[in-house]
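Lab notebook: predicted structure, single chain.

Context: the supervisor wants predicted structures on file for every construct in the current expression panel, including those that have not yet been purified. This is the next one on the list. No modifications to the sequence; it matches the entry in the shared construct table.
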Amino acid sequence: MDTTRTTSSQHRGRPSRLGFTLVELMIVIAVILLLMTITIAAFANFIVTSKEAATAATIAKLNKILQQRKEAFNRLNLKSAAKALNSTNANVNATTTKFNLRAAEVIVRKQRFEIALPQRYEERSLFNGIDYKTWFQGLSARPNYESSALLYLAITDGETFGAPQVDDDAFTTAEVTSIPINVNGTTLDLKYFIDAWGQPLRFYRWPTGLIRGESAGIVDRSYALLLNPTLPPRLANSTAIDPLKYDPDDPSQFFSMFYLGLPASQQTNFQSSFNLYFDAARFHTPLLVSAGPDRSLGLYEPNDPDRMNGLSVPLPNSGTSSTTPLNDNITNLNQRNKGN
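Prediction complete. Output recorded below exactly as produced.
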């Protein structure tokens, strides 16, 4: 038998498969598209996560510098400056008021700390012989990088109080950007800290508004815990004073008793006279904030002219304050990549 001819005849009788059917092609394309979608989503998430980690690292570096400065500052002996203030009478709303020495020391400490770490050019604008006030005043609107630029100047050109000196080369181009400015005919580069999305970091020296907002008697942790989850908790004893009502600059409440003992009109004048952007008897700690991936800060700016004494107040959203924009904010106090 000729098996070769039989086999050849059988092959000629079958339809030839030279390619894929339309259904098979559609299935392959669908699988490829699915894999591309998964890959793109994973890559996008990787980019966001990487930027969050880079921003957290920048903030952690700055926080270490701030803590070193703060610890060195706290070791300063300010008794002589307090005595000098105490030896003069402070005119508070046309009423001559004599400070006690311990209250005067708290006031001096706050004044010196404000000058050491300004967040508004009104607090300090002179660094290394250059006064930036005129340039800031010439702007049509307050820039969102003002507090970041002043923090950079304070860290690189300000007083160290014995803490390690920090130079310009301590930061990379991923952490700092600059804009050219003209100060009294001299062209300078104004540098400021940025996050991984290229947005300016915000610096709040005393963000008390997160805790008690603009209602002096109410302590609210709902906003503050998103940015500072290490806040001291409420005490089990319902009659005990909330720890957030204490001022860490005044643990014995010497200044608080003096300040709160003044009539309301004198309190307002007192703050104006001493340029103290804080409220008495409120927990506070320096706060560095990145608006995060959504680039929505969710807070009034550090240099907002209407929020001098309610620093870091949550920004109203559709008429009411909302925690939503704060959920992805990255700070020196939450040390997280996302909002929870």
